[in-house]
């Protein structure tokens, strides 16, 4: 085979051999820093996995609330150390009740991608029998307009059990990259209003739930929409800057305190494992530097980035699906070598369906094998000082800040959404990645090489229960008939008033969810208060 | 991306997402490949069965491309409805298609392209079905 030029996915040239001279000069001085100290190149914590194993944290949910509850309990009983609630994409992303005409027109799809969760009652069903006081959770609300509802429902269930919210640990998401870039709902509130909701969540958590990550930036969603590692890093910082600047402008909270709470973010690892290991290390350095240099933050904890990694769903193939167990393992290894705090491994059936119970269990087992059968957890930052990894880390810090500067020069993250720039970058990257596989520039075993005419190991596609729609309709009818109408009306008026005023919407959202408001009723209030986002790009 | 010479005329393709899942990556890649190959694309985005049917009637396309992100029910009923038209355009389907759903579609004579399908094979099918070479 000809020894042609090799590159990482983001285009950095890979040399056959690396030496000290390949480490960018500005990066060399960081090599003597310790893990647990700024700029956290070598890890967020001094002893890393020796004292804090990464959290095994898998997305889970489908069908009826009871189905989601059972799957979460199954995962927890098999060693998962936190749980992520997945809500039905059709209803949750759009804030539609199940009898919305848009949903009725596709009723067969309801419950396929997450459990149908119409009100706080469904939250209570899912969480029944789960020790939420002592288990770290992601309450769902991946999409910005859904975040306030999902978090408020979760918190109210916790409060109803007598749990002190000041001690409740977990995370929301309300991710801009999913909402406005990767997975665009038919009706979605505009980004500037989305920013307002996220800032409201940040301030509300600061006062009432100091151990909760109010919003979590998932640059993963930029990456899985076609952006490369440099862009993923630039996007992460530019997104964080919107939140930090917004909080500074409001003037109610110290920026350092906000940085602490939103410093739990999500990145992607893919099959380009050296680049991705370097990317995680670069993200920590960039976070620490940005807070120090742009915001003058000295507080060490505020500058300590904690990273949740999800392995690339897009790397998983439909063809020869069991090969994905190997891919999942490699991508998980990259996350661990990069120093992730928590990890979700995509199911081996990712390209076909949401995970079957067996695929989910394999995602746990991959992590458990890595945690228990190897010495991976014994040494902090085992690749620290590797000429290759430090060279890539240094270059990604520089080039990631290059993308960040490019976004800031255009007016910031939201401005690049509004101008269509971010979409053009993602679509270009996505087309390029498809072209690379099409033309065999990038190998994909089973897809463009080593293919089978007939796969010897076709797997059964898991299918969520078909009764999710009918059951949700029944619950909705029952909900509407059995709520206290006066309490509900007052709560909805309160929410409307909060939306159109400048006050924080979260107290009103807490009251509304407690009054058993439905998802669609929240959607109606948001749509009338904020209108709907017109995506400025013709895909 | 270039797939052969551009044709002297542009066969028209109506493309739509049948589900309410807003991930655009898959359909956009296919749309791009078809445009590059000389097809004219009318992209409906997330559309209901009725919206897709009125677009098919109005646009009189040479081909209909459906993206499935959920169950097959809706696609099957659209295939059925489209077949009832006076001069029905052929239908191709892409997206999250389970192996058994693929067999169901192929038994109906509908080309189905799950994840990992070669773009050239999608373009070739589109050309064959629109009698364009």
Automatic annotation (TrEMBL), chain A:
<keyword id="KW-0413">Isomerase</keyword>
<comment type="subunit">
    <text>Heterodimer of an alpha and a beta chain.</text>
</comment>
<dbReference type="InterPro" id="IPR016176">
    <property type="entry name" value="Cbl-dep_enz_cat"/>
</dbReference>
<dbReference type="GO" id="GO:0031419">
    <property type="term" value="F:cobalamin binding"/>
</dbReference>
<dbReference type="Pfam" id="PF01642">
    <property type="entry name" value="MM_CoA_mutase"/>
</dbReference>
<dbReference type="GO" id="GO:0004494">
    <property type="term" value="F:methylmalonyl-CoA mutase activity"/>
</dbReference>
<dbReference type="InterPro" id="IPR006099">
    <property type="entry name" value="MeMalonylCoA_mutase_a/b_cat"/>
</dbReference>
<protein>
    <submittedName>
        <fullName>Methylmalonyl-CoA mutase</fullName>
        <ecNumber>5.4.99.2</ecNumber>
    </submittedName>
</protein>
<feature type="domain" description="Methylmalonyl-CoA mutase alpha/beta chain catalytic">
    <location>
        <begin position="8"/>
        <end position="531"/>
    </location>
</feature>
<dbReference type="InterPro" id="IPR006098">
    <property type="entry name" value="MMCoA_mutase_a_cat"/>
</dbReference>
UniProtKB/TrEMBL annotation, chain B:
<keyword id="KW-0170">Cobalt</keyword>
<dbReference type="GO" id="GO:0004494">
    <property type="term" value="F:methylmalonyl-CoA mutase activity"/>
</dbReference>
<dbReference type="GO" id="GO:0046872">
    <property type="term" value="F:metal ion binding"/>
</dbReference>
<dbReference type="InterPro" id="IPR006159">
    <property type="entry name" value="Acid_CoA_mut_C"/>
</dbReference>
<keyword id="KW-0846">Cobalamin</keyword>
<protein>
    <submittedName>
        <fullName>Methylmalonyl-CoA mutase large subunit</fullName>
        <ecNumber>5.4.99.2</ecNumber>
    </submittedName>
</protein>
<keyword id="KW-0413">Isomerase</keyword>
<dbReference type="Pfam" id="PF02310">
    <property type="entry name" value="B12-binding"/>
</dbReference>
<dbReference type="InterPro" id="IPR006158">
    <property type="entry name" value="Cobalamin-bd"/>
</dbReference>
<dbReference type="InterPro" id="IPR036724">
    <property type="entry name" value="Cobalamin-bd_sf"/>
</dbReference>
<keyword id="KW-0479">Metal-binding</keyword>
<feature type="domain" description="B12-binding">
    <location>
        <begin position="10"/>
        <end position="133"/>
    </location>
</feature>
<dbReference type="GO" id="GO:0031419">
    <property type="term" value="F:cobalamin binding"/>
</dbReference>
């Amino acid at each position: 085979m000809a020894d042609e030029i090799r590159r990482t996915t983001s285009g950095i040239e890979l040399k056959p051999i690396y030496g000290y001279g390949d480490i960018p000069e500005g990066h060399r001085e960081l090599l003597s820093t310790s893990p647990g100290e700024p700029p956290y190149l070598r890890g967020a914590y001094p002893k890393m996995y020796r004292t804090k194993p990464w959290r095994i944290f898998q997305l889970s949910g489908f069908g009826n609330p009871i189905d989601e509850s059972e799957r979460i309990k199954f995962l927890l009983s098999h060693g998962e150390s936190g749980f992520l609630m997945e809500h039905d994409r059709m209803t949750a992303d759009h804030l539609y009740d199940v009898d919305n005409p848009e949903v009725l027109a596709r009723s067969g799809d309801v419950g396929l991608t997450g459990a149908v969760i119409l009100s706080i009652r469904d939250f209570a069903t899912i969480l029944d029998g789960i020790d939420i006081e002592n288990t770290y959770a992601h309450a769902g609300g991946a999409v910005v307009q859904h975040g306030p509802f999902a978090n408020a429902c979760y918190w109210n269930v916790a409060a109803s059990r007598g749990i002190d919210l000041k001690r409740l640990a977990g995370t929301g998401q309300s991710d801009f990259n999913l909402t406005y870039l990767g997975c665009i709902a038919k009706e979605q509130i505009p980004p500037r209003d989305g920013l307002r909701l996220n800032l409201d969540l940040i301030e509300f958590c600061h006062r009432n739930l100091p151990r909760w990550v109010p919003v979590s930036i998932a640059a993963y969603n930029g990456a899985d929409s076609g952006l490369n590692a440099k862009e993923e890093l630039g996007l992460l910082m530019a997104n964080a800057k919107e939140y930090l600047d917004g909080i500074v402008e409001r003037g109610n909270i110290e920026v350092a305190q906000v940085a602490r709470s939103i410093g739990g973010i999500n990145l992607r690892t893919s099959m380009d494992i050296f680049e991705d290991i370097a990317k995680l290390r670069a993200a920590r350095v960039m976070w620490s530097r940005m807070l120090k240099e742009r915001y003058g933050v000295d507080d060490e904890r505020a500058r300590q980035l904690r990273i949740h990694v999800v392995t690339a769903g897009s790397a998983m193939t439909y063809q020869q699906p069991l090969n994905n167990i190997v891919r999942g393992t490699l991508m998980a290894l990259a996350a661990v070598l990069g120093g992730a705090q928590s990890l979700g491994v995509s199911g081996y059936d990712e390209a076909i369906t949401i995970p079957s119970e067996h695929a989910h269990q394999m995602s746990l087992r991959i992590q458990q094998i890595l945690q228990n059968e190897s010495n991976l957890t014994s040494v902090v930052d085992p690749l620290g000082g590797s000429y290759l990894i430090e060279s890539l880390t240094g270059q990604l810090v520089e080039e990631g800040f290059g993308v960040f500067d490019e976004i800031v020069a255009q007016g910031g993250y939201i401005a690049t959404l509004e101008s269509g720039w971010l979409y053009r970058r993602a679509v270009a990257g996505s087309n390029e990645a498809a072209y690379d596989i099409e033309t065999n520039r990038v190998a994909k075993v089973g897809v463009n090489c080593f293919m089978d005419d007939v796969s010897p190991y076709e797997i059964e596609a898991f299918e969520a229960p078909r009764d999710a729609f009918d059951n949700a309709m029944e619950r909705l009818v029952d909900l509407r008939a059995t709520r206290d109408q006066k309490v509900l009306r007052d709560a909805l008026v309160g929410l409307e008033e909060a939306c159109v005023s400048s006050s924080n919407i979260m107290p009103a959202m807490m009251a509304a969810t407690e009054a058993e408001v439905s998802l669609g009723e929240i959607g109606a209030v948001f749509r009338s208060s904020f209108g709907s986002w017109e995506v400025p790009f013709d895909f | 991306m270039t797939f052969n010479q551009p044709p002297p005329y542009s066969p028209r393709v109506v493309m739509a997402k049948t589900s309410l899942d807003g991930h655009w990556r898959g359909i956009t890649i296919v749309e791009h490949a078809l445009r590059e190959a000389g097809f004219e694309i009318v992209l409906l985005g997330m559309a209901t069965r009725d919206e897709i049917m009125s677009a098919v009637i109005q646009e009189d396309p040479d081909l209909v491309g459906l993206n499935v992100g959920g169950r097959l029910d809706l696609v099957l009923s659209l295939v059925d409805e489209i077949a009832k038209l006076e001069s029905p355009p052929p239908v191709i389907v892409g997206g999250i298609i389970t192996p058994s759903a693929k067999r169901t579609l192929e038994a109906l004579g509908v080309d189905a392209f799950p994840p990992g399908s070669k773009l050239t094979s999608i373009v070739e099918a589109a050309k064959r079905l629109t009698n364009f070479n």
